Predict the 3D structure of the following.
Amino acid sequence: MQLLDGKKVSDDIKNEITAEVQKMKEKGEKVPHLAAVIVGNDGASLTYVGSKVKACERVGFESTLVKMPSTTSETELLKKIQQLNEDDTIDGFIVQLPLPDQIDTQKVLMAIDPRKDVDGFHPENFGKMALDMSTFIPATPFGILELLERYGVETKGKHTVVIGRSHIVGRPMSILMGRKGFPGNSTVTLTHSYTKNIAQITTQADIIITALGVPNYLKAEMVKDDAVVIDVGITRVNDDSEKGYRITGDVDFEFVSKKASFITPVPGGVGPMTIAMLLKNTLLAREQKLLKN
Ligand SMILES: Nc1nc2c(c(=O)[nH]1)N[C@@H](CN(C=O)c1ccc(C(=O)N[C@@H](CCC(=O)O)C(=O)O)cc1)CN2
């Protein structure tokens, strides 16, 4: 079994981005600027936006964190998005998800200027992705593709089973794995809460990508020998550690890792790749803006 080490690969990517930023500085160009909007006080979301800001500092990007109270109305958030769309100093921005119940997420994502949509969630960018056109690929699926590519995991002609059909991970992942090229050219089955006999499907998979958020859901008996297992689940389970919780994936790692050929750990697998690929999309947004000016 080989570990797909997202921590190491994300560090490599950040070093590559740092070198690109250095070149920009030497040419007297403005460095990329990412803004992140967070509404409310959800502990995990605050951790993730904090990591995004820290990652920007590390690679030499500018960053802006916009914190809004949990009582923010949809109108107020849409106004903030309009400001960020019009702010020429900002190359790309994200709205941290999930949003509070009073806000229509789809309406918010559609309000983001597609040229600044470094999460790749706007329908225009999502459509381009599905049509194999150049665009921002959502950071988590993009990170998974990068891990598969850097470890040389064969995907052509393989059967990939994706568990979970969220707009952030499962749905785009199922599209990307079936696209032409590498990584891709895979035969994809997208499973979800209405799928019957899921173990019958997963035991036939060469590659399993699970994004459910149910700790230890994928058991060894659901996986065939030598399968590639990608764990996108990140659940905080309360314990008596100093932090008060530990991070648990969807995969029963202790036993599944004994059967898998490649597997991502949690933590230290897909999570850090998400942050690295957001930086990559922000660099792309900056470069595209330079090309147009
Ligand atoms: N606007 C967005 N919202 C959300 C996204 C997203 O891509 N865009 N994805 C997730 C959360 N997420 C990024 O925002 C994210 C999740 C996890 C990690 C990560 O590094 N996890 C670590 C563990 C961190 C911890 O201690 O909690 C790991 O797996 O090693 C980074 C980013 C939902 N919302």
Summary: Residues 44, 47-48, 51, 94-97, 119, 139-140, 168, 234, 247, 266-268, 271-272, 274-275 surround LMY7XDAE (CB under 6 Å). The chain is about 40% helix and 15% strand.
